[in-house]
What does this fold into?
Amino acid sequence: MRVAVLGTGVVGRTIGSKLMQLGHEVTMGSRSADNESAGGWASEAGEKAEHGTFEDAAAAGELVFNCTAGTASLEALAAAGADNLSGKLLIDVSNPLDFSGGFPPSLSVMGDDSLAEQIQRAHPDGRVVKTLHTMNCAVMVDPGRLSGDHDVFVCGDDDGAKAQVSELLQSFGWPAGSVVDLGELSAARGTEAYVLLWVRLYGAFSTGDLNIKVVR
Amino acid sequence: MRVAVLGTGVVGRTIGSKLMQLGHEVTMGSRSADNESAGGWASEAGEKAEHGTFEDAAAAGELVFNCTAGTASLEALAAAGADNLSGKLLIDVSNPLDFSGGFPPSLSVMGDDSLAEQIQRAHPDGRVVKTLHTMNCAVMVDPGRLSGDHDVFVCGDDDGAKAQVSELLQSFGWPAGSVVDLGELSAARGTEAYVLLWVRLYGAFSTGDLNIKVVR
It folds into this structure.
């Protein structure tokens, strides 16, 4: 499948490379067509790796990963173009982290709204699913690197889109039983807020190689 | 030890009863000395169970549990009296849940502040430790009711106070290795925000009998 990965940071490059390893064709999108990080990634990732603008990538992709910084996501998706997102699965991996006060960050949207919902409102014809953003990217694409079971959350308003994401997550190495469907997209208010706990866990354990498991 | 439990809701009554079972003497505090819930609890909880106003309870207690609703906590602690809290361990179990928009709730403070820090600022001579508020009260006092290990978070600016809380949590049944010290009190920004995820987990699993474990 041709996948658009928006964002050339470590999250985008890691997910892009995982998708390439799984046999997908990836177009990485960034603000400018000559982005060095995207170019370097594409030259290493294989023959079927492409890169271009957000618009180029979104036009090429059958599904779209938003791996841009949360504070830049709405702008990046606007640049990608509503028509290029219409009807497509839009997997939102971003976090609305606000580092203006230093580390640990706050969130630029929280409480009775979420970045995922803002994205969905801006692109009502896209099928937004929020997932994977509650861990670092090494864990996203290699859940087995941690010792023991742990969970990945999924939420969105389109059940078919969530089912497609669940399959993709399983191809990443997530056991079906570790994919926790939290329901509608507004559940992203919870998963995005959780990231404020994640940064404290990162501080307490001096590693981002961690995640949580729901125990009942 | 004589313990003050502020708040007569299910959290306060459950923690109060657990403390009584462990041999402590509990004074439950509420807005008025003739609170029916506190009176009913005290008559069932045993001879050494007392109840009175927030001020009565805080004056009697060597340590103080804040089990009031988060939106009422600052007022309740003000009524308890700064002098009655000075130098004492103040265990904050409250959540700043805002139900004005219905269920699921939002938070009345979040992001770059927390209710725990607001309480500490209002009572600089108290030794505030935030803990236990990331689960329902049945799990707080009986962690073994869930299948498998899971964690309780502790944060605060006074290491001695946190050590005392860790011992108390172990007396509640928490293994020492499940007590996760997140550092300074500002980490409550993370644990309080997590509660927005907890309410979604509650919805997804149709039970509050759950908690999380940090997996590395």
Summary: The CA atoms of residues 145 and 190 of chain A lie 25 Å apart. The two ends of chain A are 37 Å apart (CA to CA).
